[in-house]
Design a protein that fits this description.
Length: 124
């Protein structure tokens, strides 16, 4: 199956609303609360933590406690033309969010249904 290639037409960080909004090349719009973005961090460490939580009794992505995670976004750096790397307030910056991953974890009703039903996130 050929994966569509996603590109970003516009990206806006609203520090007051604590939301990152991405407008995609195909016109789709994704709004990511920063805390959510942090919780879906695709780095190996965070994936491990999520896996452990999953095993410990289910993943509650949207309502679960953020534990030690902060939703303070210090910086957002582009990685080539395919990804970006947020730097969080606690110094965590290991997550490289590819555009495809970002699109896959889009929390809107339409996209979110897919992975919410399965209770697990797409693999980065
Ligand atoms: Zn991480
Ligand atoms: Zn969506």
């Amino acid at each position: 199956m050929a994966e569509p290639t996603f590109y970003i037409a516009d990206i806006q960080l609203d520090t007051r609303q604590r939301t990152l909004t991405i407008e995609w090349g195909d016109g789709h719009r994704s709004g990511y609360p920063l805390g959510y973005l942090r919780r879906v961090c695709p780095c190996a460490l965070c994936r491990d933590i999520r896996r452990q939580r999953e095993e410990a009794g289910g993943l509650n992505l949207l309502n679960g406690p953020a534990a030690t995670a902060t939703d303070e976004l210090t910086d957002l750096q582009p990685v080539g033309l395919y990804a970006m790397q947020p730097v969080w307030g606690d110094g965590h910056n290991a997550g490289i969010y590819s555009f495809e991953y970002l699109r896959a974890v889009c929390p809107c009703a339409e996209c979110g249904r897919r992975w919410r039903d399965e209770g697990t996130l797409p693999e980065p």
